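Table S2 (continued). Query chain:
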Amino acid sequence: MEEKYLKHKYEPIIPSKNEWPVVKLARERKEFVKKVSDLAEERILNLAEKNPEILKEELETTLYREKLRIKQNPWVVDPDDESSFWGEVKASLLQINSVTGISKAEKIQGYKSILNRITSRYAEEIASNFKHSHYKFTRSVVTFGFSRLLNAARVKGFRSIFSNQYTLQDKIQITGETDQLRDLATKGTIVMVPTHFSNLDSILIGWIISVLGLPPFIYGAGLNLFNISIFAYFMNSLGAYKVDRRKKNLLYLETLKTYSKEAIQFGCHSLFFPGGTRSRSGMIESKLKLGLLSTAIEAQRANFQNGINDNSGKVFVVPVTINYHFVLEAPSLIRDHLSITGQERYYKENDEFSNSYKISKFLLKFFTKGSDISVSIGKAMDVLGNYVDADGNSLDKKGRRINTRDYFLSEGVITVDQQREEEYTNMLGRRIVEEFHKINRVFSSHLVAFTAFEMIQATNRKLDLFDLIRLPEEDIVLSYDEFKSNCQMVMDRVYELKSKGLINVAPHLQQGMDEIIKHGLDNVGMYHAKRPLIQNEQGNIVTEDMSLLYFYHNRLTGYGLEKLF
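Corresponding output:
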């Protein structure tokens, strides 16, 4: 089947900005933040079973972890009063614990007061600061700036600055179920779940949402990105709420989940990266962080509880894959991946994206190299992972209509069942991973990197991964003819998988194999100081960085292609 690419900008599905759910939410921000804080407090009290000892333990754990975070891993974006706030929390806890003869009810009341201060602070920190005027300006800057860079790359001379010969749609191929996404966004609430490889993903997805004529989505962006002024402006303007991955305590996580659930229920289209953070290995995410994903299921159940049983109360989950030939942060990401020993640790995420100058320099390279990006929109699903039809009705595997509401019933009544919803979240996570692999598009760079690494591994079978990566680069030489033959073998298998709907391919793979290899070598890790793959003067294939080669190879793991070698 011939793939269609979006070559134009759609008309907005909601022309009036005052009707955008994010604008309505921004108008009610103060009330919404209080609601989130109160509901998060309620959730935590229920989890603590209103037992003062359990509640005390959670408050003390939060205090300990927060003081440790401030000391060991401070960020520029952290508020100035962090230390004093947690100092006050400590003093309040000591006061309650030091009073003798206090009743259980009085203790609970004292702990609740502290809990409320913490959830209020967390809710305020997490909440989006969306402003329509900033959104409009940011959208224009992204479109204008990226387009100018693109034309500067393709149209020579001064006139390139004013040229409209090339648009972002020429560079960024948007493919897949774009019409279904637009239709369903007018019927229910969309939760978009993309793969995550680069800090550029957030801005790219924000631009795509705009091009598709969709109202702005709210989405969780890593708080670390707000360390950088240019990113902070873009994130705030595009509707981001803040996610601080340093905070692992129950109080923060429950406040974050409450914010997401309530925003989805409010009708805000939402976006989060279910991998949780950028893929450090370069692989498509196979294990998802299910915390925020579970909020889509909670919101769906709550809508049914509130009697919204038609498709206006339906939550639609839309997987998206983003494909690049190269990832700016690849060297540090793969270093992190290889150095992880299984122990939880903090990541210093502001590496190659550490300041505005580096980002600007990257964007210039990114667009002037003329390398393509593709964004694949998957088929929409309900919160149980069933595909939905054009009207938003859920379908079983045989295409028969089913009612999602039935899955939340106990003895004919919609009920809260945490164990059941946990299982539904796991099911949805597995389905998203399946869809990621199906809509993933093979690029020439993925093909050449995968083939080269597997050939090197096949000739060094006794070495484990770490020994393999430490092989001297000068000892690694692949005969071009053998490399070409193996690339063809891998591509033949990729096309078999494509015929079964298990993967997709970029159009540049329709050339002859010599052209595909040249295209792949030109593009793979094209601006890294050390190239993962190049052709030497003798015409053979060599690497300058085995760990980077491994990173780019990993994009095609998960399809059983390794068995070919």
